[in-house]
């Protein structure tokens, strides 16, 4: 199987896997884990090829591309986690404001 076939298979497999989930953070984390597994497989294949061969050059290019994708996914995951935390903080602040209003209303009624 050539590197192009391998990359296409990776894309199709990742697309099928990602379509099963709705949570974007979970999607990216699963895809990144899968890519890390593929990177380990690719590094193993690199150990088996003849140094200086065309196959080695193709595998090194695929490895570089995959490492770039993994870095992109890690950045996306970090941003999603920050957004999720900010959303949770906003939600908690909203609940606190609501509770404060309710307490003020109670104080006015009983005061």
Describe this protein's structure.
The chain has 111 residues and is mainly alpha-helical. It is 88% helix and 0% strand. It has a domain at 3-79. The chain contains three helices and no strands. The longest helix is centred in the last third of the chain and has 57 residues, at 54-110. The chain is rod-shaped and about 85 Å long.
Strand content: under 5%
Give the N-terminus to C-terminus distance in angstroms: 80 Å
* Helix and strand pattern: HHH
Q: Calculate Rg over CA atoms.
A: 24 Å
Helix content: over 70%
Taking all residues together, what is the mean pLDDT? 83
What structural class results from the helix and strand content? mainly alpha
Number of strands: 0
